[in-house]
Specification:
By secondary structure, the chain is α/β, with parallel strands linked by helices. The protein has helices at residues 6-12, 40-55, 71-76, 103-112; strands spanning 2-3, 30-35, 61-66, 84-88, 95-98.
């Protein structure tokens, strides 16, 4: 899992400064975990996402955005509660899920939203 700053986000996910309409910049579908270090439920999601990053290696990227350090990024996506998990397919609009999702729910979203099957 990689941490994203605003610059990384603009390059790898969506350059919202240049584009009004959604335009995905990445090469693989991705999941973005909006979190904070003080957030208990966020700490429960992190190991789940780390396992999924291994299971789906080469098929999707998993990023983390620290909402305390990247407040502009959090505001750009209207993050009001954390954890918030953004599922970003190669084509089509991203979808946001809020809360500490269990692994099987995240896997279902990977299959249905990102159209990725397990290795």
């Amino acid at each position: 899992m990689k941490s994203l700053t605003k610059d990384g986000f603009l390059q790898k996910v969506f350059n919202y400064e240049q584009n009004k309409e959604w335009k995905f910049e990445g090469e693989l579908p991705c999941i973005i975990d909006f979190y904070a270090d003080w957030c208990g439920p966020c700490k429960m999601v992190e190991p789940v996402l780390q396992k999924l990053a291994q299971e789906y290696q080469g098929k999707l990227d998993i990023y983390r955005v620290n909402t305390e350090e990247q407040q502009e990024l959090a505001a750009a996506f209207g993050i009001r509660s954390i954890p918030s998990i953004l599922f970003v397919p190669l084509n089509g609009k991203p979808q946001m899920a809020i809360g500490a999702l269990p692994k099987n729910t995240i896997k279902k979203a990977i299959s249905e939203i990102l159209n990725i099957t397990e290795n």
